[in-house]
Structures are given as structure tokens and as C-alpha cells.
Amino acid sequence: MVRKNKGKEEKFEKWEKLRPDTKKSVLAITFGGAATVLFLSSIGKAGPLGGALFSGLDTLFGLGFYLVPALMAIVAVVFLFSREDKLIGLTLSGAVLFVIAGLGTIDIIFPDKAGLTGSLVGLVEVPFGYVAALVIGFTALAASLLVTLNVPLKLRLPARKNAEESRAVSEIKEAAAPKIAEPASDVAYEKASTLVEGEAGKEKEVMAVRRVAPAMSKNYKTPPLSLLKSGTDKPSAGDLRANANIIKRTLDGFGIPVEMGEINIGPKVTRYTLKPAEGVKLSRILALNQDLSLALAAHPIRIEAPIPGKSLVGIEVPNKSAALVRLGSLMAYADFQNSGPLAFALGRDVTGEPIFADIAKMPHLLIAGATGSGKSVAIHSLILSLLYKNSPATLKFILIDPKRVELSAYEGIPHLVSPVITEAKKTVGVFRWAIAEMEKRYETLLKAGARDIQSYNSKNKNEQLPYVVLVVDELADLMASHGREVEGSIVRIAQMARATGIHLVLSTQRPSVEVITGLIKANITSRVAMQVASQVDSRTILDMAGAEKLLGGGDMLFVSSELSKPKRIQGAYVTEEEIKKAADFLLENNDWTSEDTPGFEAPSEIGGKDLFENYIEDGSDDSLYEEAVNVVREAQKASASLLQRRLKVGYARAARLLDIMEERSIVGPGDGAKPREVYVERVASSE
């Protein structure tokens, strides 16, 4: 007995291991074949065994015999086309009840015509009477048929534009229907419009973020928030329940049972969450990316497994139509207004919630992506966010724009340390000035006994150090022309400048290892990856795949030291017209001079040179420069061979030191075979 029971259990376990679709197919074929055999036996075409089978069933069922093959055919069709996996037992139970109810009803209407089984069931007429028994019989017939077919009884069909989507929705069980989260963007846009339009006649209400400006900048006028547009458009995600059903069916088809969860509608993508059954490997779900994309007719889709902080898997599907995330609507949030001086608006995440970041916490940012992916717009959003929160007394910008057209709109605003830098050669001087300013600030902090710029400014209300944000719009061009100097300067600033309030924002459209080197990545942990062409480019930026599946147009992955995994964000959008209006307002309403910032000394012009030219070849990066000057002063002559002998260096380094001294008017220019003139005494006397 024990062995027999074990054998039955093993067979049952083997049956349970079959895929749900396979089980239904086997049952559909079985019931279809049985129905055909019964029909053939009723017309004498099933041989002697079929005839004996018909005789036995005719004795049991009488006229109700014909219900059996008909119902078996219906059950076969149900199994063949059903999309539910766990209703096999209910379907069979409904079929048995339908046969029993049918036999009883036939016996009530036609006594002694439903065989032995019908006679037994028809006894219900004795206690209830003829009419009530008929009502019971037809009620049981209808109920069992609905159970068998698994369809609801609808007295009125609701009007639908798309019949196919309506049918897909009706097939989802009510208990398993996913919860659809309302997009947060609608509320946000309403708040933004309320802040901007609530009291249009009052400048105080329009200039909502003015109160975050520091107290010492009383003469500074912040641009009004009304200069920036606040979006009111909404995303269109299509039929959410139908898409959820497609995802569930597709995964079930590959033997991955899942339970659908909440649906979040974002500006550009909609995230469908699901919980896989226990024991399902996440790698199996990740491998079905292309299959899900085909089933949903959407490309590209991104699978986040798992969602950070949740035991769920997220499938991000592009919306039918995207919603613009306006910078003005984000800046109207109280979270932004009450944040630190270096906070800026990044955009909205896949749930529609606003995302803000703080450069002071990063403390440097790298933005990379293909052409047209939204890098320049992200930089403009960052710059405008900081301009709205800071006066020139608290923030200084250095803008480097090798392309000459992206950052030219800010030319002349009072926050700039110098005019927008467009020449790659001057960039070397900019970075050297930043390093010199960093070292100078560390000396200032040391004398004041302050740990960082925040503590220093809190102690010195009358002479505060402003933050300095150095923005590079195209790093690739600088790395191609002055790679060694630029990389070394970036690494040094990234390693040491945080406490002094100097921050880097780097952008590049060529995410290659020649541009984003290992040293730069190691020291700049906060990165934004826009859409890229390949997985290799994504790994170059983020050290992981994912950016190749973005949609472009501001769609980004943001990673920082505070995030365990990249966060998908739709970046804030700002138009060229809005940028121009804000810059023009700053130019027309603010007359700021360097005297208005007592804690900051800008690079000055020496000898008629431009601001940073004095730092381009200042010799500060050569430890032998001062010694070389002393050699020339003592010898009262200057030549490369002299420096080679005295300093024990090669010709290239000696010639470079000589060129630097000539540039700084320490020695005269070379004139063939004549020796160079030495001006050291003249320079010393003038000093």
C-alpha cells in the first residue's frame, strides 16, 4: 500500500511540474477526443466497444446522453483558449454539475427519458413541485455553465472605444487587479501654477524663491519665477490593465508565475511592478527583456530587478506620449526653496515625484551621453537653479564652453568670475587658478580655525567666501588638446576642493575611457548618464549597463554615493527663451562689482593679459622653477645648456623653464648666437 501511494504521489508531482499551458493543452485534446468518440458511438460508427459504451450511457442518462459529448467539446474549447492557469478544477466541477442539472431538468420535463441518473435527480420535483423544480433546474444549469466557461453575466455592456482592450481588461481577476498609483505630476503642476499665478499682481508672491537668498545680498534682485514656464500637460500610458495582463501572461508562458503590483505613471515611462513566485531567479526575468518588448510592442523597455528598498521587480515601459517636466514647476516646491544654496532641480522619477540634488554633498558632477540626449539642457537647469538661489556674494561661476554657443547666453551676468572661456588653451590657466584659489582658501580656513567653508561663513558674517562652480560643457575637446594638464587638475580639485567650496560640473558627449579616465571616475562619484549608443558606453559612465535603454530627451540615470543603484529620472526642461529672459533680467536689474564680494578676489589683469593667462605657464607645476631662476640670477646669463648642467635635467625641461622665464620677463628672447639678456635685477628692483 505504501509503495502504491508513493507511486501515485510521484505521478502527481510529475503532472504538477508541467507548465500550465501544457496541462491545458493535454486536457483540451483529451476532452475533444472523448467528445468525438461519444458522438461516433451514438451513430454507430465506433465499433462494438463504442456501441457497448453508448448502451451503458443511454441507460444512465437517456436523452441526456447528448449533453455529455457537447459539454466535453465546450470544455475542450475552454481549456484551449483560456488564459487562466488555476481554474482547471473549477472548470471540471462546473461541467459535472451542468450534466447533473441537465439530466434532472430533462427528467422533470420528460419523465423517464433521462435514464437512471435523471430519475434520481428528478426527485427534486417531489418536495418542490413542478414549477419550482424547473426554476431550480434552470438556475443550476446557468450557474454551472458560467463556472465552466468562467465568464461573468453582464446585463449591460459598457461602451468602449476599443473592444479588444475591453476584453483584455475583463480577463483579469478582480483579486489580482494591480493598483494604479495616481501620477504625482498633476499635483505638482497645480502647486506650481498656484505659486506663480495665485496673486499675479504682487511681486512678492511671484518671486517665490527670493527668500532663500542670503541676507547680505540686499541689493541683488532674483529673477521672478514667472520667467520660467510651468507645465500642465499629462503623460499618456495607454491601457494600463491590459499591459499588466500582457506582462503577466508573457511571464507565465515562460513558466514564471508572478503577482502584479502597483503601477506608477512617470513623465516618460510607466513602471509596472510585480512580485515573482518564491524560488524564481531574477536572471530569468532579466533575460526576457526582448520578449516583453515584443509582447508590449514597446521599445526599449528596462527591467529593474529588484527595485531598491522593495521586494518587487519593476518593468519600465515608454509612455504613448510623454509629459514635459518644466523647471519652473520644480522650483516652486517648498523642498527646493528650503534646501541648501547649492541645491538644484534634477527632474522627476518614474513615480512622478520631484528629485533635487545638492552639489555641496556630491561634491562634483559628471554628465555624459550621446549627442541630443539632453546634456546641455541639464547644465542649463543646474545653472538656473543656482542663479535663483544665490547672489554673486554667495556664488561665482566659471563657464568653459569650447563649442562657443551653449553657454554664451550667460555672458556678462554678475555671477561670472570672468567672461565665458571658449579657448582650450585658457582652460589650463583656469584649472591652475582654481587650484591656487583652493590652496589660498585652505590657508584662510586654517587661520580662522574653521573646518570647511560653511563653518567659516557662519563665523565671518561680513567677509564670507562665495562658492565657486566650474562648469565645463565639453570635456572631450579639452582632453584631446591638453589631456595631461586637464586630467591632473581635475583629479586634484576633485580630491581636495570640497571643503573650500569649489565644485566641478563636467559634461561630455563622448563617453570613452580616453575622456572619462579611471582617475576622473574614481574621484567623481556622482554621475548622470544620458542615452548612449552601446552597453560599453554605459559601463564607461556608470560601471554598469542601463543607459543604452534610455529614451533620450532628458531621460537619465543618476548615481551618487547616497544611492545603491542608479535612479531613473526625467530631466527638467528649460527653453532657450527662458534662459535668455533670466539672463537679461540679471543684466538689467543688477549692477554688481567685485567690491560687493569682499571675501573673494577674482583673478586680475597683469600686463594687459586676460584674466587667466598669467596661470597658463606660471611654472607652478615645476618644482625646479624657483631654483632655475636663482641659477640665472647668480650666473647673470641664461641658456638651456646652463640649466642642464646646474640642475641635472634634460634639454626639454631646461628649454621649458627658459621659455617660462622669458614669458615672465626674467630673461630676454633668444637672438641667434648672442646670449640672452637677464632682467632679474630689473625685476627685483621694481618689486
From TrEMBL:
<keyword id="KW-0238">DNA-binding</keyword>
<dbReference type="Pfam" id="PF09397">
    <property type="entry name" value="FtsK_gamma"/>
</dbReference>
<dbReference type="InterPro" id="IPR002543">
    <property type="entry name" value="FtsK_dom"/>
</dbReference>
<dbReference type="GO" id="GO:0005524">
    <property type="term" value="F:ATP binding"/>
</dbReference>
<keyword id="KW-0067">ATP-binding</keyword>
<feature type="domain" description="FtsK">
    <location>
        <begin position="352"/>
        <end position="539"/>
    </location>
</feature>
<dbReference type="InterPro" id="IPR027417">
    <property type="entry name" value="P-loop_NTPase"/>
</dbReference>
<protein>
    <recommendedName>
        <fullName>FtsK domain-containing protein</fullName>
    </recommendedName>
</protein>
<dbReference type="InterPro" id="IPR036388">
    <property type="entry name" value="WH-like_DNA-bd_sf"/>
</dbReference>
<dbReference type="Pfam" id="PF01580">
    <property type="entry name" value="FtsK_SpoIIIE"/>
</dbReference>
<feature type="transmembrane region" description="Helical">
    <location>
        <begin position="130"/>
        <end position="151"/>
    </location>
</feature>
<feature type="binding site">
    <location>
        <begin position="369"/>
        <end position="376"/>
    </location>
    <ligand>
        <name>ATP</name>
    </ligand>
</feature>
<dbReference type="Pfam" id="PF17854">
    <property type="entry name" value="FtsK_alpha"/>
</dbReference>
<dbReference type="InterPro" id="IPR018541">
    <property type="entry name" value="Ftsk_gamma"/>
</dbReference>
<keyword id="KW-1133">Transmembrane helix</keyword>
<dbReference type="GO" id="GO:0003677">
    <property type="term" value="F:DNA binding"/>
</dbReference>
<dbReference type="InterPro" id="IPR003593">
    <property type="entry name" value="AAA+_ATPase"/>
</dbReference>
<keyword id="KW-0472">Membrane</keyword>
<keyword id="KW-0547">Nucleotide-binding</keyword>
<feature type="transmembrane region" description="Helical">
    <location>
        <begin position="25"/>
        <end position="43"/>
    </location>
</feature>
<keyword id="KW-0812">Transmembrane</keyword>
<dbReference type="InterPro" id="IPR041027">
    <property type="entry name" value="FtsK_alpha"/>
</dbReference>
<dbReference type="InterPro" id="IPR036390">
    <property type="entry name" value="WH_DNA-bd_sf"/>
</dbReference>
<comment type="similarity">
    <text>Belongs to the FtsK/SpoIIIE/SftA family.</text>
</comment>
<feature type="transmembrane region" description="Helical">
    <location>
        <begin position="63"/>
        <end position="81"/>
    </location>
</feature>
<feature type="transmembrane region" description="Helical">
    <location>
        <begin position="88"/>
        <end position="110"/>
    </location>
</feature>
<dbReference type="InterPro" id="IPR050206">
    <property type="entry name" value="FtsK/SpoIIIE/SftA"/>
</dbReference>
